[in-house]
Structures are given as C-alpha cells and as structure tokens.
C-alpha cells in the first residue's frame, strides 16, 4: 500500500514550518542550525503526536469507535493531544493517568479537563507497574463503556503503533521536500525520543526516499528496554504496512541516553539552560521533560565533538510546551529562583 492510501484524517496544521534559528546559530556557533516546528501543529496546544493521531483516529473511526481510551503520565502530552483531536472529531476521551491526582490541576492535566476528558488516576511505584495497572483499568473501563452501548478504541502509551508511526513517516517526506525547497542538505535530525514511535516512523520515511540523514533520538527516560531493538521492530512493522521488504535492525537506530539525568521528568541543569537559551535567543518555548533535554543533547553532542559545528542540523521541536506552566515540580527550585534574579 502507498502511504497516501492509508486512511488519515486531517486535523493538524501541516506542514509545520522548517526555519533557520538565526540567533541560536550565532549563540552556539553552528551556522546551519534549523528547527522543525511541530509545536505548531495547531490544535489544543499542538505537538508531535497530532501527526500520529491523524492516522490513529482514522483507524478508530473506521472501526466505528465513539470513545477513545488511552494512558500516560499525569503530565502526558500524548493524552492531552488525544483529548484535543478526539474532541474536535466529536469523540469522548477517557484517560488513565499514571500517578497520584495532584491537588492543583496544571499544564496538560488542566487542558485535558478543560477539553472534557474523563480522567482516572492509577498510582504506582514505577512506570512498569503503572503501565500494567493502567492496561488493566483501560480494559475494564472499555468493557463497562461497551456494555452501555458505546464502542471503544484503546491506544497504547504515546500512540506507538505502526499506524500511529505512519504520521512520522509522512513527516519525514514533508521535511525532505521542505529541505529541497530551502536548498539545504540536512546532516542530522535531532529530537526527543520517548515511546520511540516518532523515531520509528522517521526511519521508515528515510528509507522510502533513500536519504542518508542521521536520525538521532535523545532519550528522556530509561524505559522500554531494549529500546533500540524495540524501535527497529516498530519501524519494521510500520514499513510492512507499506509493503517494505527490507528489514530494520538495531544498527539503523541511534539514540543517546547521556542526557536523561536522574530520570524521566526529573530536571537537569543542562536542559534548563537549553530552555533558557532557546527562550532568550529565539522566543521559542521548550519543555523540561522532552524538548529541553533534546536540545541539551544537541548542544552536548556538538560540545563533545560527536557532531561537527559545520554540519547542517535540524532540531525537531516535538511540542510539549504546556508543561512549562507546571513550574517548580518539573523545572526545579533552583531554576525558578534563577528567574527571579
Ligand atoms: C513533547 C514530546 N516530545 C517527544 C516525544 C517522544 O515521542 P515518541 O513517544 O514518539 O518517542 C513525546 C512523547 O510523549 C513528547 O510528548
């Protein structure tokens, strides 16, 4: 099947801009530094997951679903983006969030409530236990909702299914044609990788156009091990939907774990510095959990010489900026104090 034949509902404002980071380029001495603005996909504060949801929700509608059930952390961007897209299509959203219910609803959680999601919380000692508990609760909620005469569509964390990944295969084709229009040859695409779906989709797109761009995922947490193998398998399954014969292996997948810090959603000084630098040079807002760490990775890889300053680099802004409004809990006390000076 050709990618254009895979059912998709247009929800996002696409293509997103590919533009030069003129000020940041000068600040870090990388003349050819660009940004892909997936923070501008439009609906409900945008983000990279809108691309996946265009395919996932087309699949849900083809199965006559009227209720979307999914899961993520308490400040998940995916659950917020799912709520936004489902709401726009007139579907109900049920969320199972892993973590304790906070006293005050902020950031993504506030937006989800505002857009009318039904929210359940499951507390857990760690993400693995949380994912298991969330899976159980999603299945039992689905049974109950279906008994009431509705039809449910359950999406896994991050929308990381082959159908969801197709959104990023398409995104690769999009940036490939934008780079041609700008007459640039991109050496590196750098972005935050979480569930791995974005990276898997991009790898498939790269294969379609036979590109030699280096696709670099900056990891934001230690989960989904063995991570690179899982991404290769996801790329393989995504490619299969398009009738791709040649398989993917771990060798196709490049990720760095060096910029995680203590763990998922725990701030790092490097990420916070990157957030400040981007805000103060380009007035572009990054987030502490994903894009801040990804930009810290980009700067770190250049500083230690893994990537040359003369390469043409695209930083893929994957969205997530509403979590900046969560404040101290995600940015840390030191950072918040530093803003007062
Ligand atoms: C802002 C942001 N960037 C990057 C990612 C990573 O995308 P993926 O889960 O497809 O690896 C996510 C996923 O939640 C995200 O919210």
The computed structural class is: alpha/beta
Bound molecules: pyridoxal-5'-phosphate
* Percent range for β-strand residues: 5-15%
Mean pLDDT: 97
**Proportion of residues in helical segments:** 40-55%
The name CATH uses for the topology of the largest domain is Rossmann fold
* CATH architecture term of the largest domain: 3-Layer(aba) Sandwich
Name the assembly state.
single chain
- Tally of domains: 2
Helix and strand sequence: EHEHEHEHEHEHEHEHEHHEHH
Radius of gyration of CA atoms, rounded to a whole number? 19 Å
Q: Main β-sheet, in a few words?
A: 6 strands, mixed
Name of the CATH first level of the largest domain: Alpha Beta
Residue runs with pLDDT of under 50 for 5 or more positions: none
């Amino acid at each position: 099947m050709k990618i254009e034949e895979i059912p998709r509902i247009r929800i996002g404002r696409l293509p997103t801009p590919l533009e030069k980071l003129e000020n940041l380029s000068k600040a870090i001495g990388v003349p050819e530094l660009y940004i892909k603005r997936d923070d501008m996909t439009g609906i409900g504060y945008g983000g990279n997951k809108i691309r996946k949801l265009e395919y996932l929700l087309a699949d849900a509608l083809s199965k006559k679903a009227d209720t979307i059930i999914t899961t993520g952390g308490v400040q998940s961007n995916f659950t917020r983006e799912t709520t936004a897209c489902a709401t726009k299509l007139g579907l109900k959203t049920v969320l199972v969030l892993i973590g304790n219910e906070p006293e005050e609803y902020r950031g993504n959680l506030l937006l989800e409530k505002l857009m009318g999601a039904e929210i359940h919380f499951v507390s857990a000692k760690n993400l693995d236990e949380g994912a298991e508990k969330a899976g159980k609760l999603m299945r039992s909620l689905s049974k109950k909702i279906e008994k009431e005469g509705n039809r449910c569509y359950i999406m896994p964390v991050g929308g990381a299914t082959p159908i969801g990944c197709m959104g990023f295969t398409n995104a690769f084709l999009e940036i490939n044609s934008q780079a041609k229009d700008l007459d640039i040859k991109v050496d590196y695409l750098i972005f935050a990788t979480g569930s791995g779906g974005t990276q898997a989709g991009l790898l498939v797109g790269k294969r379609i156009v036979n590109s030699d761009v280096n696709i670099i995922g900056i990891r934001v947490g230690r989960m989904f091990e063995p991570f690179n193998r899982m991404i290769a398998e996801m790329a393989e399954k995504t490619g299969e939907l398009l009738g791709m014969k040649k398989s993917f292996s771990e060798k196709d997948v490049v990720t760095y774990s060096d910029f995680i810090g203590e763990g998922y959603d725990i701030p790092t000084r490097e990420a916070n510095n990157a957030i400040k630098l981007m805000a103060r040079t380009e007035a572009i807002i990054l987030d502490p959990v994903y894009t801040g760490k990804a930009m810290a990775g980009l700067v770190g890889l250049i500083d230690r010489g893994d990537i040359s300053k003369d390469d043409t680099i695209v930083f893929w802004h994957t969205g997530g900026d509403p979590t900046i409004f969560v404040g101290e809990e995600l940015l840390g006390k030191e950072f918040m104090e530093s803003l007062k000076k």
